[in-house]
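Task 17 of the worksheet. Students: predict the tertiary structure of the chain below and write it out as structure tokens. Keep your answer in the requested format; marks are given for formatting as well as content.
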Amino acid sequence: MAALAVGDPAPQFSLPDGEGKTVSLKELRGKKVVLYFYPKDDTSGCTKEACSFRDNLARVKKKGALLFGVSADSPASHRKFTEKFDLTFPLLSDEERSVIKAYGVWKEKSMYGRKYMGIERTTFIIDEKGKIAHIFSKVKVEGHTDEVLALL
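Model answer:
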């Protein structure tokens, strides 16, 4: 499958959030969407990233955008993570990894010489027409929220 590029239609999805409500990209048409993929709830880098987005959510909304985090964790895991860190935006659960794969963020990674498959931290900005406006690959958590806000 070819990698997604700026200008491509964003792959459609319908995923449950931590409360069990389904969020569908089709229903978000007409709004800018920040969709960030992260490896795992309640791990150090993912917690830093989520808390940074939480702390800047008013700025994201001021730019007219909605924010969603996506991982393969269960809705129950998302609920715990959200409550523990008082996250104020939805985390979407893709336990089947179908959306994670559609967005091309399921990659071979390596740690301590061991290779394994996992989510590569990636953020997409999707425009009001449902097209990809920007892709941040291999995201470094530090300063990432400001990079996103600069392009909204």
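Marker's comment: The first helix runs from residue 44 to 55. Residues 97 and 112 are 25 Å apart (CA to CA).
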